[in-house]
Design a protein that fits this description.
- This protein is mainly alpha-helical and 103 residues long.
- α4 runs antiparallel to α5.
- It has one domain.
- Keywords: Membrane, Transmembrane, Transmembrane helix, Transport.
- It is found in: Membrane.
Length: 103
């Protein structure tokens, strides 16, 4: 590790998250993880005919996420700007589509 210079010290991000923001992040993570807990319950439920299809649906969703990630990686390597989906849509499709992509 090197020594932090005064210029690097000025570039640090400001701490701007409030207690409400941190609670929202924590609750969102907890509620979001419920999807994985409930998937096991659904696969085990005797009255629901889900069974192995739960595993197949997770595999299909994983494949879709992988392809989406590759698409974003390709766009990020070509467009060097902050803004993710909004900027990519703005550059390639125009302002109206960028608004909807960001919304």
């Amino acid at each position: 590790m090197g020594v932090i210079t005064e210029e690097e010290e000025k570039e640090k991000l400001a701490r701007c998250l409030s207690l409400y923001d941190l609670l929202a992040v924590g609750i969102g993570g907890t509620v979001g993880s419920g999807v994985f807990v409930l998937a096991g319950e659904i696969a085990n439920a005797p009255d629901l005919p889900a069974g192995p299809s739960v595993v197949l649906s997770f595999a299909a969703a994983g494949l879709a996420c992988f392809v989406s990630g590759l698409s974003f990686a390709e766009l990020a390597s070509g467009i060097h700007a902050d803004g993710s989906s909004y900027v990519y849509a703005y550059v390639h499709l125009g302002e109206i589509f960028a608004f909807w992509a960001g919304w």
